Amino acid sequence: MWFRRDLRINDHPALCKAAELGEVVPLFILDEKLIKSAGSKRLSYLANSLRALDDSLANKLNVAIGQPDQVLKKYQEHYQADSIHITEEFEPYGAKRDAKIIAAGIKLTKTGTPYAVAPGSVRKPTDGTPYRVYTPFYKGWSTFQIPKPYLKPANLKLAEPIDRNFPDWKAPAGSQVFKAGEIAAHARFEQFSAAALSQYDVARNLAGIDGTSKMSAHLKWGEVHPRTLLLQLNQTKAHEVYRKEIAWREFYADVLFHNPHTDWDYYAGQFSKMKYDEPGEKFKAWCEGKTGFPFVDAAMRQLLIEGWMHNRTRMVVASFLVKDLHIEWQHGAKHFMEHLIDFDMASNSHGWQWTAGCGTDASPYYRVFNPIEQGKKFDENGDYVRKYVPELAHLQGIEIHEPWLVIDGYSNGYPNQIVDHAKERIESLARLEEIKMRKPEMPKK
Ligand SMILES: Cc1cc2nc3c(=O)[nH]c(=O)nc-3n(C[C@H](O)[C@H](O)[C@H](O)COP(=O)(O)OP(=O)(O)OC[C@H]3O[C@@H](n4cnc5c(N)ncnc54)[C@H](O)[C@@H]3O)c2cc1C
What we know:
5 strands, 4% strand, two-stranded parallel sheet, DNA Cyclobutane Dipyrimidine Photolyase, subunit A, domain 3, three-stranded parallel sheet, 3 domains, 45% helix, mainly alpha, Rossmann fold, Serine Threonine Protein Phosphatase 5, Tetratricopeptide repeat, binds flavin-adenine dinucleotide
């Protein structure tokens, strides 16, 4: 059983399939390419997740280093393995890697996917083409029957491991990365269900409270399957909104599956012709959370400390980068790729493109988030900013979002605004006008 983005033992169809056939050799391969693209927070999360998986596999998990095809060949020979089991992968890198392995003559038995409904399955009933807009996708997606969670294999016989190269990646000093692993995922969802799920429809936008599930890293690493979560939801409004958020993850996976070039390229091609600025000092200030806009800075510092950011502020900082600093979305997406513990190619690239106005049913480009008003609305009493921006912690309530209006607003060294939002808004709309006259480009195939 080759584990990849499915680091759990419950509700795991591929593991069940492998266990049905006899003794199982659990294996994780440290793939250099993926490791290079991840920063220390995501790597430390992965290291902890592997330890947690190993605990639930009676310390029989193999952790091997090397090229996946070579490692798999070695394992096939050593264990005389009849079959290699995987959860099917759909993202461009994983799908290509698996196709190459199969082409090299190694048979992979695919059972299950990291999604409730596999990418590529939801199609328009009229002509069988994929959806480009979320709402009709959601309607189609909702008609799929979600099977009951798979029970953990009862008699899981595990072979003695030969490689135990557990990485000891550590998160940087001062960071606070969520607890990894399947047990932590279930504990967090239970806590969220008891405390916040029934108000999720309202609370999910409030950055200063613990109102969202924080399942994203658990879902990214497959420590929990979305099916397990969906089956716990009822028909109330709050639960329905939560179901729709899980479906956004599935929608973006579907869009990326049909448009693999949109991992780093534009979905709406005409936006690649827009005039952008090179990332320089302002980009550095954005990355470090020193733009002088409290809501933006709090979010960027949350990312650096936790490797996670609230959805509302992901949208605000993305809009700020593209429309206030006029920097292409890919630069921001790469910074997120380095720092997020929940980095997911589909949700990240399309979350960025949605905000930048160049994605699927994107927020129109001309709708520019006002970073100050967003802060006042979604962090009304300033708790979020106070938590991550100590230079402003002495300010009370909503005034924290406008330190320039307060006499001692800058007394603790908080930086001045690096741009004038009103001016940059006009500039971004002018740049939009320049490309608007051109004929819209349809997504490349
Ligand atoms: C610029 C930008 C970049 C993003 N990058 C990522 C990323 O790399 N990885 C990632 O998992 N999510 C990403 N998102 C989506 C979203 O911000 C996170 O999934 C969410 O904040 C995770 O917190 P949560 O688990 O508490 O979410 P909850 O609100 O509890 O939602 C439950 C689950 O639904 C899914 N979900 C919620 N909102 C979205 C969304 N807008 N798009 C796709 N799925 C969603 C996630 O799997 C999430 O865990 C990005 C959004 C933006 C705007």
